[in-house]
Design a protein that fits this description.
The protein is α/β, with parallel strands linked by helices. The chain has helices spanning 14-25, 44-56, 67-75, 78-81, 125-140, 170-175, 180-195, 207-219, 224-235, 273-284, 303-317, 323-347, 352-365, and strands at residues 2-9, 32-42, 60-65, 84-86, 89-90, 97-101, 105-111, 114-119, 150-154, 157-163, 168-169, 243-244, 253-256, 259-262, 269-270. A six-stranded mixed beta sheet has the order 5-9-10-8-7-6, with helices on one face. A four-stranded parallel beta sheet has the order 1-2-3-4, covered by helices on one side.
Length: 374
């Protein structure tokens, strides 16, 4: 049942409105939605009506609150007692520049100082609120990240709004001639700041849990002995509480007035840094699955720039290590990467050539690999 709340609700009319609401509810005992799209103000007298209604029917929620009305509910603690949702303003991204794109959504520049990440799924509100909380958590722990300040509707989809004045992604900077070497070094500075952050148990999802599912699903399509070894290699990766971004690449690092900021925090997790490095390998090389013509196409940069970012990222991250040591870690990251891509390609009916490439890589390298971590 949906009940419309309108105008002002205060001591002068609260009793009358409560009577009308109770008459409308009658003997109904299901979910009740209070639509506050036309509600201008609610006083303590009106709040007591809501409280009594909530006590009588636990499945009561409020939707479409204006910012002013929502603030009243928030200040009085009602947002902790029940589900209360703001009204979302509608915007259009038609003709707007696309500055980022990923599995979960597309990032548009809607104004010189504003970008909007539009989520691909129409059921993304929970993901949006989760990403905002993760971004806030990272921010207060010293990670340079942009925090979304608003949620909007874009057609049937939802979007998060960020204030990033004239910000450019690292991919854009590469295409404007900024040195790949310089940007890789800057990106590793952010990466090391994040990886120096230790979380408490339960604060973030554990990446190893997800990674083990990749290994278990890929193992089904490999010879039994190799599949078993693959799973054991993943199981042997140490559990750590290191903060991981999970989707760290040149489209998710923005530069604003000389300051570098991370976006797309919905993949935040914790675990051994090898999982982050495997995701970086996937982004810059792995997803091409042996077809160099696809290198860098997702980012809109050249193949050389994509491979350059991969090489320089590992060199700066493992500064002081020998080439042999870095190459060994790169191969371990590649095994994790191709394990993830292999099961994904099979389950999504990907290209046979890509599936064959991943399979051949795993068949060749798993037998001669003793560990996947560093």
């Amino acid at each position: 049942m949906t009940i419309q709340l309108m105008g002002r609700i205060d001591s002068s009319n609260a009793a009358e409105i409560e009577t009308k609401i109770n008459e409308q509810i009658g003997n109904y005992s299901g979910e009740i939605t209070l639509d506050a799209s036309a509600l201008e103000y609610i006083s303590s007298a009106g709040l007591r009506i809501i409280l009594r209604l909530k006590k009588a029917n636990a499945e009561t929620r409020i939707i479409n609150c204006s910012s002013d009305v929502y603030e009243i509910f928030d200040m009085t603690g009602f947002t902790e007692l029940m589900e209360i949702a703001k009204a979302y303003r509608h915007i259009s991204v038609e003709g707007c520049e696309i500055i980022g794109e990923g599995a979960n959504g597309t990032v548009y520049r809607t104004a010189p100082d504003t970008i909007v990440k539009v989520y691909s799924s129409p059921d993304s509100l929970a993901d949006i609120h989760r990403e905002r909380e993760l971004a806030r958590k990272a921010f207060v722990m010293g990670i340079p990240t942009a925090i979304p300040y608003d949620v909007v509707k874009v057609g049937d989809l939802y979007g998060s709004v960020f204030e990033l004045l004239n910000a450019k992604s690292f991919a854009q900077l590469i295409n404007e001639g900024v040195s790949v070497e310089s940007l890789a070094k800057q990106s590793v500075e952010i990466l090391k700041t994040m990886h120096a952050t230790v979380m408490q148990d339960g604060e973030l999802p554990r990446k190893k849990d997800e990674a083990l599912s990749w290994a278990q699903r890929s193992a089904k399509y490999l010879p039994a002995a190799i599949g078993e070894k693959l799973i054991s290699l993943f199981e042997a990766i140490p559990e750590t509480n290191t903060m991981l971004h999970g989707d760290f690449h040149v489209k998710n690092i923005m530069q604003q007035n000389g300051e570098n900021l991370l976006i797309d925090m919905d993949t935040l997790s914790m675990g051994h840094p090898i999982f982050e490095l495997a995701a970086i390998f996937s982004a810059y090389k792995g997803y091409s699955c042996g077809d160099d013509s696809y290198l860098g196409t997702f980012f809109g940069i050249t193949a050389d720039a994509s491979l350059g970012m991969l090489d320089a990222t590992f060199r700066y991250y493992f500064d002081g290590c020998s080439e042999t040591e870095i190459d060994a870690i790169l191969k371990r990251a590649a095994i994790i990467s191709y394990t993830r891509i292999y099961r994904w390609m099979i389950e999504k009916n990907g290209k046979e050539a890509s599936i064959a490439f991943c399979r051949d890589y795993l068949l060749e390298n798993i037998p001669k690999t003793d560990k996947l971590y560093f």
